[in-house]
Amino acid sequence: ALSNLTQEELLAWLQRGLRYEVLEGNVGYLRVDDIPGKEVLSKLGQFLVAHVWGKLMGTSALVLDLRHCTGGQVSGIPYVISYLHPGNTVLHVDTIYDRPSNTTTEIWTLPQVLGERYGADKDVVVLTSGRTGGVAEDVAYILKQMRRAIVVGERTVGGALDLQKLRIGQSNFFLTVPVSRSLGPLGGGSQTWEGSGVLPCVGTPAEQALEKALSILTLRRALPGVVHCLQEALQDYYTLVDRVPALRNHLASMDFSTVVSEDDLVTKLNAGLQAVSEDPRLLVRAVGPRETPPGPEAEAEEPPGATPDVPEDEAVRLALVDSVFQVSVLPGNVGYLRFDRFADASVLGALAPYILR
């Protein structure tokens, strides 16, 4: 029992299930393999704030790795959630029902925490696997429902918060039974993660979850720059000038919290821009690393003033004009002229006699 351990022994136990570092791009990484309870955290809180949390507070985003966490103590849930809850207001995050005592316990975030809370403007990603269970699942589920974290990895095991091993009669057989359950985060709900597991926001094999999380954070780190560039492009180029202020304001106020891929970003931007502009021609698209975007750079490949080649042979010139221009006289002496593309002025000049004829 943890209650029988000295502070030094508790610290050694805690460090075995805890790993942290600052990754490239100033991304904090915190791996927790067993979520400790209130008793341990109250004894070791100052140490954790000074030597673990303090090292991660200066990061621009946080990855909470629960892929190897198969359980923990229910009393530790408020501590984990509270450090990621952006405000000082308390929030009801779950209600736990215990069958043997027929009681319910409400779980609220803490009104105050040692040290500082993680900034509300910083992204948080939770990594999960098919082994993530119990209390760790509840933490992942609550953070997902709060829209405070992006869950990346595999669907969790769908375990239970508390298990008891019961002997069957006087035999050597035992039955492990879930004896308490979550009634749903934020105060209620008929269905929770128990039995079905926590479904990730972005599904990927557990061993690739960290790499996927870092790529998502790279994209999200670029979002402010992308929005700024779009605002400048609209300001400088969009012909419907009277709609530009509304478009720029809409871009500035858009919620990008659910964007986890380029496709998400393109879809959201196009829906927002077209709703405000009512212009189906105003489109954003993602350009691959080997794809040349259309624009001034592409047009500059041909020197200004260059004259496209016009065939010298008269029959070929006539055939060219006949293939471009469809001419006929319809019933009622109605002239019909069709052409599907405007030619360069220099080409029209060279072919003028044939066009006139």
TrEMBL record:
First and last residue of the signal peptide: none
GO biological process: proteolysis
Alphabetized SMART domains for the sequence: TSPc (SM00245)
Annotated Tail specific protease domain residues: 6-205
Name of this protein: Retinol-binding protein 3
Gene3D superfamilies for this protein: 2-enoyl-CoA Hydratase, Chain A, domain 1, 3.30.750.44
GO terms of molecular function: retinol binding; serine-type peptidase activity
Gene name of this polypeptide: RBP3
Positions of the UniProt region annotated as Disordered: 288-311
Cellular component per GO, a single term: cone matrix sheath
Pfam families the UniProt entry points to: Peptidase_S41, Peptidase_S41_N
